[in-house]
Task: structure prediction
Amino acid sequence: MPDRHEEERSEEGSIGLPDLGDNIDALTFEQILEMDDDEDEREFSKSIVIGFFEQAEQTFTKMDEALKEKDLAQLSSLGHFLKGSSATLGLTKVKDSCEKIQHYGQKKDEAGTTDVDDDELCLSRIKETLVSVKEEYAEVEKVLKKFYQL
Result:
């Protein structure tokens, strides 16, 4: 019988997670779950996820401030920072959007390969991407809060 997280072990021993949607890479997230000592409590992974929520909220606030100040370098740095922590949890869409913010802040195109010599265009793209990343974050936050019953 599956536990409260609706998980089941396959014959190979991997955890069958509930549907995490296409915003979370199940294999990456499962690696975090494997570090839990107790599969019912999941204290270790839960603490990482809760820490990420706090970090993301603070980073979004800083991004909003940096956008008002038109601080491309700070926006790039914040995008890079949040990209790393979201990648650790397998939050693929959040990671991808943060990478775009990082590139735009470096005055590059979306892929980070071509220089863009227009600060206002880069700021405009960051503003649009920031709206998207906050929506993507809200989606994964909802899924993860449900998973951890927060």
In short: The helical segments are 26-33, 43-68, 72-89, 92-105, 119-148. The longest helix spans residues 119-148. Confidence is low (pLDDT under 50) at residues 1-15.
